[in-house]
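$ fold --in a.seq
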Amino acid sequence: MPEDTPRMGTLFPCALAEPFLERLPELPPRSGDAWTRRYRVLTVGMKAMGSAGALVLRRRPDADGGVLLGVDYDRSVVARHVCAVRVEMVFGREDPVTPLRWSLHSVTRDPDGNPDPLTEYAQDAEVTADHVAITAHGRTRRIPRRGLPAIPNWGLFASPGAWPGPGSAERPILLLDDMDQPKPARLACAGKQRVLLGAQRLVSEREIPLERGRVWRPEWVWKGGRAAELTRYHLTGDGVVPYVFYTDPAARVLFAGAGTEAYALEAESPSAEG
């Protein structure tokens, strides 16, 4: 492997998450129509990122030729409680980016897994060519699309193959932040870079010759890894915490970071049941 090929962990903002990127598995050249991807949810600190939970995406075709995307998001909050969010999105055959509809349920669970009824929240959404209708607490709010693709946060992870490529103009979108906060945003490709994936940080013994004899000194070194060409994307906009995405040639999001939260891919299985 060329010595000048950088590790993925040297790219911004991946450096803070490098211990988690070491675990990135070797992935198949392409994903099928159905898959499950598991991401480690990371919280961003000054010098490193720590594990805060898990994000699981399950994609499968539906009977009408569209796609179903299930989202399980579990994040640690206070006193060993967990915020558990479950989303089901339905995408049509013609548009892999904007869902036709979705349903969401969230609740906070105590350390024994018991839900707190006071924290429950449910939401249903229907998307038309003109607006997004979001119903919660018995009220419906209609958000104008103004001709833009309407994409909820986690829906972004399922559609990199439809994002603008290198040299293409940035794409305006309507980001539905936290699934219901409309924010005009711009999705842009920032280019490609060849990096090493899955390099391991190991202890090696280095020989140090002395005037008489020699000694061995342990030191950290990086070993192995496999080369891949990653594409970097930026998501920005008024009121949008800037996102950085890195995708592989199969259009999988390997890493995403925004503000104090990041996601690192841990595993992919070739079914929607894994």
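$ fold --in b.seq
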Amino acid sequence: MSVAEMKAKAAEGLASINNETDIKEILEHIEKLKNKEKSFDAEAFFKKAAEQYGEVLKKLAE
């Protein structure tokens, strides 16, 4: 499925929702995704690196 097809399917799904609370939740999630692309979460980056390369980092620190 292409990106354009996924966007169309998402728009159809959103159009079928009538609950205001659900729509607000979806809009908040979309805003978080848009902001996520623009920001850099250093803590998450280093945590992931530590999990992936923990043993190597320990050896380098010695």
